[in-house]
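ok so i was messing around last nite and threw this chain in just to see what happens. nothing serious, just curious
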Amino acid sequence: MSTWLRKCRLGVVFLLLSVGLGIAFWQPLSPQDLMSWAAGLTLHPLTIVALVILQVLLHAFALPGSLMLWVFAPLFTPPVATFLLTTGSVLGALAAYAFVRWIGTDWQPGTRGEGMLKVLEKRQDFLTQLIFRVLPGFPHSVMNYGGGMLRLPLKTYLAAATLGLSIKWLVYAKAVHALFAAGAEGEAIDFGHLLPLIVLTLLLALGAIFRKRLMAG
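result:
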């Protein structure tokens, strides 16, 4: 990993930790007030824009931007949460693609991502990239940085990211939103709540099988 990327990642992590520790230490609001305040803030367009920008930055610096699922999914309907998550993820993928092109190819994906890069070197088509985006278990950072390092065709790269991530985020958002809604309203969890989780489980299984075959090959 390049020195530039390492410094940027450490800077973002330090900033987030400082804010989190500050809130935890001073406790300006009770947990209940904080949740009510957060729910009210989500109605403001600037707050939504700020959250999307935060997700873009997390993906751009190979940090876990997927954590924003737990911000958007409980507070928004699944279609809205899917749109916001997809927007932040795709823009983050574009930023990471451009960033790795700017800093050069001094980036190593680690053992877990080597198989993905080998496949992408051989097959740069839309379907291969779509599979990596849809199936869980494949790190976003490898696709994002690998795309820039391998100079994948940008149109195909963005099209696969947009479609694949929108499918994945819709399943995730439905699952998380259903569980939070059932818990908040005291409802019994029925098959309608479990269906997104069943689909998610199937995707996880498919991702594990595909990743095993990929690493074996």
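not much to say yet. The CA atoms of residues 134 and 168 lie 5 Å apart.
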